[in-house]
Amino acid sequence: MLRRPRRNRKSIAIREMVEETTLTTKDFIFPLFLLEGKNKKIEVDSMPGIFRLTTDLMLKEIEECLKLGIKAFDIFPVVDEKYKDKMATQSANEKFFYLKALKEIKAQFPEACIMTDVAMDPYSSDGHDGIVDENGNILNDETLEVLADMALAQAATGIDIIGPSDMMDGRVEVIRDVLDDNNFENVSIMSYSAKYASAFYGPFRDALDSAPKSGDKKTYQMNPANKHEALIEAELDADEGADFLMVKPALAYLDVIHLLKENHELPIAAYNVSGEYSMIKAAAQKGWLNGELAMMESLLSIKRAGADVILSYFAKEAALLLKK
Ligand SMILES: NCc1[nH]cc(CCC(=O)O)c1CC(=O)O
Ligand SMILES: [Mg+2]
């Protein structure tokens, strides 16, 4: 035999030498769930090890993560039902707890990269990412105004990256315009470009209590059957001024991550979503698979597929392992 691929696997030294993909803590953005109030920490039942935190405790968590080398965080507010309405009004109220918290976090850790989510669902009494009319339709262009106000209010807190996750058409352009018109030309946009209508968001909707009150998100989030349509979404977002293109979820969509990486020069992000986290956690708790190995293999596969940036609830655990 002239060629024996096993020779390049014969020792750790050689295996490491020929390794094609290296996962590092710098790849991660750690999503965090923000609670109103003080000194409260509530675990998400369907996401063991993930907690909703009040601002004071989140500051401590961010400090710990920074020491581990995690430099970027995506912050999602848990909004009490009494603050929700049809127009997601509280999303742009500078006195509302989440905007005050963002300001505090950014002031305390200016070196941290703070990302926020733009979509109506956490603040909406309908639990949808856009405005719902009397017939249950999600209104695209009317929603854009709400998203622009929300993005501007978030930018005013000093955060670094706006993450539109709503899948309305044209929102990247509208957000870019409003940011630029208000001297926030240095605030980045990480667009959820190819965001699929996925069952894997279930635990996240538990965490925020943000599930749609009626219907589903299939008229705006993408059909899991479609790959080439992701190229249209990505091209539009790139043209409209996005700084990053995101694919979400990650593991069931590695082909889409690869496709976007091959076709775009912009950095590609992938969101390793809540359900992907919970599946591994649940199986590990049952002793059905080795949770640490499954976690690292999944994260590595997302990077190998072409992701430059990985949003993952595993970020802290993986950073601890990578440090060892
Ligand atoms: N638009 C809100 C939003 N932003 C991120 C996620 C999901 C993240 C996860 O599952 O971890 C969702 C849920 C949804 O679209 O229903
Ligand atoms: Mg789009």
Descriptive key words:
binds the ligand NCc1[nH]cc(CCC(=O)O)c1CC(=O)O; two-stranded antiparallel sheet; ALAD_AS; binds magnesium ion; 11 helices; porphyrin biosynthesis; eight-stranded parallel beta barrel; alpha/beta; 324 residues; porphobilinogen synthase activity; 38% helix; TIM Barrel; magnesium
Secondary-structure map:
Layout lengths: L11 H6 L10 E8 L5 E4 L2 E8 H14 L3 E6 L19 H12 L4 E6 L12 E2 L5 E2 H16 L5 E4 L6 H11 L6 E8 L6 H7 L19 H12 L4 E5 L5 H10 L4 E5 L1 H12 L5 H15 L3 E4 L2 H9 L1
Parallel strand pairs: 1-3, 1-4, 1-12, 4-5, 5-8, 8-9, 9-10, 10-11, 11-12
Antiparallel strand pairs: 2-3, 6-7
Helix pairs in contact: 4-5, 7-8, 8-10, 9-10
Bound molecules: ligand PBG and magnesium ion.
Subunit structure: Homooctamer.
Family: Belongs to the ALAD family.
GO molecular function: porphobilinogen synthase activity; zinc ion binding
Beta strand %: 15-25%
* Strand line-up across the major sheet: 1-4-5-8-9-10-11-12
What small molecules accompany the polymer chains? the ligand NCc1[nH]cc(CCC(=O)O)c1CC(=O)O, magnesium ion
Low-confidence stretches: none
Total DSSP E strands: 12
Shape: globular
Measured as a percent range, the helix fraction is 25-40%
- Look at the structure and name the CATH superfamily: Aldolase class I
The major β-sheet equals: 8 strands, parallel, barrel
The helix tally amounts to 11
Mean pLDDT: 98
Going by CATH, the architecture would be Alpha-Beta Barrel
CATH topology name: TIM Barrel
The CATH class label is Alpha Beta
Number of domains in the coordinates?
Answer: 1
Q: What is the multimeric organization of the chains shown? A: single chain
Question: Roughly how many Å is the radius of gyration?
Answer: 20 Å
What's the helix-strand series? HEEEHEHEEEHEHEHHEHEHHEH
Catalytic activity: 2 5-aminolevulinate = porphobilinogen + 2 H2O + H(+)
Pfam families: ALAD (PF00490)
Pathway: Porphyrin-containing compound metabolism; protoporphyrin-IX biosynthesis; coproporphyrinogen-III from 5-aminolevulinate: step 1/4
Enzyme class: lyase
